[in-house]
């Protein structure tokens, strides 16, 4: 899938346009008076999935007819796969249950089809409020000043499970450059993984930059910072990172390696948003998309995200649906196999 700057930000303009017309759309919107909606979080509390989920629960209802209550349900396990599989196959299809879906839904589906029992194209994507890169961060006392140091040094990382971005991306880097990286799994989300770094159980973790900036911004300050970013994976450079933090796509030269990096990079475009399970009535989908666009355009929502040290980069559900469909359909079996071999071994 070819992603351009236009692809990334088209959703912003479309979202604002839809928000402007949402008052008209709300006339036929489902009445949620007295109802309670649920948002499933595929990890434990404290991470960016949870933080965005809390913000969604606080603001989306204001733009739905009847101003319904919205609650969260955390369902951690297997790097998010437990929640995604439940959502695709068990969750009610009445439009009352949504999920903050894994940003790597597509890559997991294609690389581990026996583990991921869903087709991301069948979800109804409601919208997204952020796009982000995965950023590898190491403790300064690990002796790793840049990626080249990993040619001679060993690095132990912490993450939730083998389906998480925090596992897939460091292991991709290991496979691309034959670095000595070991990932320890079993931590319940980014907060626990980052705490493991702080306690000395690990030396590295890889999450979106907002996870680092919102949880441990003090790690990166001063003359002797506790930790530093050494690599990022995404379509575009993260605007909040120094230019000295390299894009992995710039460090590989082989065509298949570049395609494998691009395949995983699509996750950043999905970011943090909401989706409905397969089979929800199209009118309910349209109503929730319109409400989501209004929420993204609401200054109160933007202010809440800023307070939580989160970014707002909005995209419509239709745009995310297009990205997901194209990513699944354009990924060749050869690229998927190569990425799988780099990460999990042949």
Polypeptide structure, described:
The chain has two domains: 5-130 and 269-344, 3-Layer(aba) Sandwich (D-Maltodextrin-Binding Protein, domain 2); 134-265, 3-Layer(aba) Sandwich (D-Maltodextrin-Binding Protein, domain 2). The chain is 42% helix and 16% strand. The protein has helices at 5-25, 48-59, 81-89, 105-111, 165-177, 190-199, 209-215, 255-265, 267-270, 282-296, 299-307, 317-330, 333-344; strands at 36-41, 69-74, 97-99, 124-128, 134-139, 154-158, 180-184, 204-208, 227-233, 273-276, 315-316. Strands 2-1-3 form a three-stranded parallel beta sheet, sandwiched between helices. β6 (154-158), α5 (165-177) and β7 form a beta-alpha-beta unit. α5 packs across α13 (333-344). The radius of gyration is 19 Å and the shape is globular. The two termini are 25 Å apart.
Please write out the topology.
Layout: H1 5-25, E1 36-41, H2 48-59, E2 69-74, H3 81-89, E3 97-99, H4 105-111, E4 124-128, E5 134-139, E6 154-158, H5 165-177, E7 180-184, H6 190-199, E8 204-208, H7 209-215, E9 227-233, H8 255-265, H9 267-270, E10 273-276, H10 282-296, H11 299-307, E11 315-316, H12 317-330, H13 333-344
Parallel strand pairs: 1-2, 1-3, 6-7
Antiparallel strand pairs: 4-10, 4-11, 5-8, 5-9
Helix pairs in contact: 1-10, 2-11, 5-13, 8-13
